[in-house]
Fold:
Amino acid sequence: MPNLPSRRDADPRAVPVPAEEAVVDCAVYVDGRRLPGRYTHADALAEVRSRGEGFIWLGLHEPDEHQMTSVARTFGLHELMVEDAVHAHQRPKLERYDDVLFLVLRTVNYVEHESVTTTSEIVETGEIMIFTGPDFVVSVRHGDHSGLSDVRHRLEQSPDRLALGPASVLHAVADYVVDSYLAVTTLVEPDVDDLEELVFTPSTRIAVEQIYLLKREIVELRRAVVPLAAPLQQLTRGPGHPIPKDVRRYFRDVADHHTTVAERIATFDETLSTLLDAAIAKVTVQQNTDMRRISAWVAIAAVPTMIAGIYGMNFDRMPELHWEYGYYMVVGVIVVITVALFLTFRRNKWL
Structure:
């Protein structure tokens, strides 16, 4: 994924940007329903704690250090969480700081292209970080393709699920990300099939670099997806996590889908390794065929060259040198030998 400019890349001497500038949405949920009105994150948390029920869901997009520090101060987040949330580029992981869970998810997006042989990028990645406490959820998003507005909208249509608390949001986001993995692998599969067809189609030439490109994209996809297996297992079976039993059951389904994606990626990787070996072997065979063809033409060309070289020597006495039909005889011999060589090479499939 290209390094996109963000607010945190600004001049550190500039005036700090308020945390509200990074807020995508901030809502208070009580009994699974969103309270009307607009809140700042501080006001929303105060509203929840004054009621003694419900939770807040704060969504942020690429906050800088000042903005994330302000949010962390409000929700009591550990400074190490702040550092991870600002700088991103983390591996998928699950950490617990007292009663706060910190889950890092890598998002993936399929880049549309006309042909696998002409594109330079197939998969781009981003990140979503989720902080969940007893009465709050803070989601931090990096990248422009992994919006959570649809997730929030679907959850708001299911008050029973939202009534389960912050853990329901954690599950919904993880489920959304893993479902996107399934969609991306489904779209990547035809690209692998296209390369396979090109490699095993006779008389076609394929650049090995294209296989390397797709294999590189699969490696990037694997790095984003596979490490999530351990955090999902912790959320389904790990003791001590503040995840309700009812929500853990949903996480098992997410883990099953993740296993399916990981198996697909492993299959893609093995297929591309096989295609790479086959393509290299095909190139070697093509080179051998070209060398045989070149050698055959060199052998044919050597006959007139040799005879012309012999009769080009400056000797007075040479066989048939002064014979009236000597020239025609030499040309005839050259034609007969070259035709015989050509037919021989053609019969042996060198030409």
Remarks:
- Residues 211 and 276 are 6 Å apart (CA to CA).
- The chain has ten helices and seven strands.
- The beta strands are 23-30, 33-34, 55-61, 93-97, 100-110, 123-132, 136-142.
